[in-house]
């Protein structure tokens, strides 16, 4: 197979071969692979030139604000939506041309999953099994096993119209697993679930990857939950994948770029203090947020700030270095896109796009 | 009561049959899986229809109207028989009582209601329940969803129509004591076939609306609106349009009157309601020799008598083709609409 011998740089060659899937440096072969995947609605670009590789057994988080193109991406991966250009493969199968083959190995848990309300949970699962063309004995055995696994055995024979949202979500996970998928795609799985349910769901997702070796793609805008379980994340803003990689790597590359964020406040709190902050060395921006200022700089300015404020007669009441975690990464990219999000308070990052797509 | 049990029996038979077939094809190979998806959908839809209260209401309505029209027909049967003693069995379907319309009239009016009830929320309820995207992310062809829903609805309709026919036939034989001739049975069968196709047209139409409209209420309104339009207002529109195109005044010639009438008939025949009514009155009345206008000189030398079944069928063949074509157009519309529609969460 000449495909396996290709180096990761030969994009154009790979695009010619229908099932071209490149190996990365470690010799792993991505199970989900997209090349220049683009989707437009009229003049609006929903997903723009997406190149993504996801490897078997991985939990990949697709993060982004609402309307960033996450759901559109998952729909294209399932062959439910046709890309304007570009291609996607799952396990070597073209998502647009062989949707049936793709859907046979990919389980999809939609956002706000619904069930037939006048059927019981068990009947709903049985129906899914039949749609997948499974044999009846396989179906019954799998239903029992999966209900046990998601903790729905007691409620299995109630009509699903009586289920709570958390129960529906758990039944949804069982429903996805009916076809024994290699890849599981979850759209906002954590939305509207209580903390205990969330913990169980996270545990379950981790099991699916670790024990069963399934590949999991989670799309979400709730980064805290996703941060806990994802091996890698991709950040989506306005249809573009602006950053992709392990969370640690993203944070480290942010530090390497020398972005330091300092929260500070002083007494007396007047315009002179702001001026002082702006005159510090290597400072990119100073913004007022509530009671304090946020100072972004390329180097550590704490020492300089202490000295200068003392000289100018200011008493520092707050000085705190902000951690470079996913939250901060998230904030930077999403605020640039002008998006509202939880905890957002209107700061603008001036230096945008310091991360390249530092891939795997 | 009899109709209900008969209906249920044959439905359970047919669903048992598809069940065993689904088992046989239940492997995970390509085509078989996609095909068994259609069977699974079909069975689910059938079960849904049979268990729904809506279906029971429709069935009760149909049984009641059948009974009422039969009662009216039987009460005025003796008068009609003294006037013309041929084809008594068919008169059970076509005779109207003093205040109660005939069975064929009832069905022409209420048939659309049955079709609309079975289909108006076929797709959009799946969408609003959030089950549609779960459904189409299963390894089935997308058309299987539409096909399964249409086939299940059509099966219900055929079963319902057949059991209605048998019910009326059985009661009629008991009541009159005269067994039907082979030709009468044939004519009744063609009538039932027409009825099934007619109701299936409305099913296809309501499925089309359920694809196009986001809300079940909107599609139901559209369906009911069209139903009332075709049943009540189409003839008004036809006469207005014909009057505008071929005006008739006091000095109109025969040619003008003919043109006006033909124009009116052509417009009326766009309505499935008119097509069905015309076809059924031809089939159920062997003395109807033509569906168009015939001048006296064209009839000169004709021997008055009944048409044979074959000739009657020949006369309404275009109507049958028209109804089937209309249904096919509606079905194709919903098919295309559904295939092109992007399915997102609710």
Care to describe what's here?
- The complex is a heterodimer of chains A (360) and B (346).
- In chain A, β12 (283-289) and β13 (292-297) form a beta hairpin.
- Chain A has helices spanning 2-5, 11-16, 70-77, 99-105, 121-131, 136-149, 165-177, 195-210, 223-229, 247-256, 271-278, 302-311, 326-336, and strands spanning 32-41, 44-54, 59-63, 85-90, 93-94, 106-109, 183-187, 215-220, 232-237, 240-245, 260-267, 283-289, 292-297, 315-321.
- The longest helix of chain A is centred in the middle third of the chain and has 16 residues, at 195-210.
- In chain A, α5 (121-131) crosses α6 and α6 (136-149) packs across α7.
- Chain A is 35% helix and 25% strand.
- Chain A has 13 helices and 14 strands.
- With 360 residues, chain A is α/β, with parallel strands linked by helices.
- Residues 1-20 and 339-360 of chain A have low confidence and may be disordered.
- Chain B is mainly alpha-helical and 346 residues long.
- Chain B has one domain (2-340).
- The longest helix of chain B is centred in the middle third of the chain and has 34 residues, at 143-176.
- Chain B starts with a helix and ends in a 6-residue tail after the last helix.
- In chain B, 41% of the residues are buried.
- The interface between A and B is large, with 34 and 38 residues.
Name a few traits of the molecule:
heterodimer, A: 360 residues, alpha/beta, Rossmann fold, Alpha-Beta Plaits, 6-stranded mixed β-sheet, 4-stranded antiparallel β-sheet, 13 helices, 35% helix, 25% strand, B: 346 residues, mainly alpha, 15 helices, 0% strand, globular, disordered N terminus
Q: What characteristic shape of chain A results from the CA principal axes?
A: elongated
The coarse overall form of chain B would be globular
| Strand residue percentage of chain A | 15-25%
CATH architecture of the largest domain in chain A: 3-Layer(aba) Sandwich
Find the CATH topology of the largest domain in chain A: Rossmann fold
Whole-number count of domains of chain B: 1
Structural class of chain A: alpha/beta
Helix content of chain A: 25-40%
How large is the radius of gyration of chain A?
24 Å
CATH evolutionary superfamily of the largest domain in chain A: P-loop containing nucleotide triphosphate hydrolases
Query: What is the CATH level 1 assignment of the largest domain in chain A?
Result: Alpha Beta
Count of separate structural domains of chain A: 2
The string of secondary-structure elements of chain B, in order, is HHHHHHHHHHHHHHH
């Amino acid at each position: 197979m000449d495909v396996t011998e290709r180096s990761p740089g030969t994009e154009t060659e790979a695009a010619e071969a229908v099932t071209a899937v490149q190996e990365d440096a470690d010799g792993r072969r991505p199970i989900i692979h997209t090349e220049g995947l683009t989707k437009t609605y009229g003049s609006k670009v929903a997903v723009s030139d997406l190149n993504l590789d996801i490897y078997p057994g991985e939990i990949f988080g697709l993060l982004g604000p609402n309307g960033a193109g996450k759901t559109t991406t998952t729909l294209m991966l399932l062959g439910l939506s046709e890309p304007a250009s570009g291609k996607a493969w799952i396990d070597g199968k073209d998502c647009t041309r062989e949707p049936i083959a793709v859907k046979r190995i990919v389980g999809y848990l939609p956002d706000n999953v619904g069930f037939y309300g006048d059927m019981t949970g068990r009947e709903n699962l049985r129906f899914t099994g039949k749609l997948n063309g499974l044999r009846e004995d396989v179906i019954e055995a799998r239903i029992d096993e999966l209900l046990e696994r998601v903790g729905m055995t007691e409620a299995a024979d109630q009509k699903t119209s009586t289920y709570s949202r958390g129960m529906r979500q758990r039944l949804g996970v069982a429903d996805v697993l009916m076809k024994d998928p290699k890849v599981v795609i979850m759209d906002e799985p954590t939305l509207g679930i209580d903390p205990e349910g969330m913990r169980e769901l996270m545990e379950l997702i981790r099991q699916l990857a670790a024990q069963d070796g399934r590949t999991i793609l989670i799309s979400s805008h709730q980064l805290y939950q996703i941060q806990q379980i994802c091996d890698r994340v991709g950040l989506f803003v306005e249809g573009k994948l602006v950053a992709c990689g392990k969370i640690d790597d993203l944070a480290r590359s942010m530090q390497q770029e020398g972005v330091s964020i300092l929260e500070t406040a002083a007494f007396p709190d007047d315009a002179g203090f702001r001026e002082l902050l702006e005159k510090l060395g290597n400072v990119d921006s100073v913004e007022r947020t509530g009671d304090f200022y946020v100072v972004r700089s390329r180097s550590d300015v704490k020492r300089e700030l202490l000295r200068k404020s003392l000289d100018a007669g200011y008493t520092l009441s707050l000085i705190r270095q902000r951690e470079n975690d996913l939250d901060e990464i998230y904030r930077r990219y999403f605020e640039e896109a002008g998006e509202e999000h939880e905890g957002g308070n209107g700061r603008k990052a001036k230096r945008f796009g310091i991360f390249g797509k530092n891939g795997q | 009561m009899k109709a209900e049990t008969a209906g249920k029996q044959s439905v359970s038979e047919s669903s048992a049959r598809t069940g065993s077939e689904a088992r046989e094809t239940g492997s995970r190979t390509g085509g078989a899986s996609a095909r068994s998806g259609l069977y699974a959908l079909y069975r689910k839809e059938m079960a849904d229809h049979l268990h729904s209260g809506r279906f029971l209401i429709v069935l009760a309505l149909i049984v009641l109207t059948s009974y009422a029209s039969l009662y009216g027909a039987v009460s005025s049967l003796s008068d009609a028989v003294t006037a013309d003693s041929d084809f008594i069995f068919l008169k059970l379907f076509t005779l109207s009582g003093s205040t109660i319309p005939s069975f064929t009239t009832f069905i022409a009016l209420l048939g659309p209601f049955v079709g609309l009830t079975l289909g108006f929320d076929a797709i959009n309820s799946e969408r609003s329940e959030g089950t549609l995207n779960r459904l189409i992310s299963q390894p089935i062809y997308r058309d299987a969803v539409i096909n399964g829903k249409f086939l299940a609805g059509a099966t219900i309709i055929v079963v319902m129509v057949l059991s209605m026919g048998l019910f009326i036939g059985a009661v009629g034989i008991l009541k009159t004591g005269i067994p039907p001739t082979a030709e009468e049975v044939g004519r009744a069968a063609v009538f039932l076939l027409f009825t099934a196709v007619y109701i299936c047209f409305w099913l296809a139409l309501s499925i089309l609306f359920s694809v196009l409209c986001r809300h079940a209420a909107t599609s139901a309104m559209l369906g009911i609106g069209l139903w009332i339009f075709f049943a009540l207002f189409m003839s008004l529109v036809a006469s207005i349009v014909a009057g505008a195109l071929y005006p008739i005044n006091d000095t109109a010639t025969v040619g003008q009157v003919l043109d006006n009438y033909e124009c009116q008939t052509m417009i009326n025949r766009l309505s499935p309601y008119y097509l069905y009514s015309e076809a059924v009155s031809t089939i159920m009345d062997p003395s109807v020799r033509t569906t168009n206008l015939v001048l006296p000189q064209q009839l000169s030398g004709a021997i008055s008598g009944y048409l044979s079944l074959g000739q009657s069928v020949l006369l309404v063949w275009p109507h049958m083709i028209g109804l089937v074509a209309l249904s096919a157009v509606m079905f194709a519309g919903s098919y295309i609409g559904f295939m092109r529609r992007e399915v997102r969460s609710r």
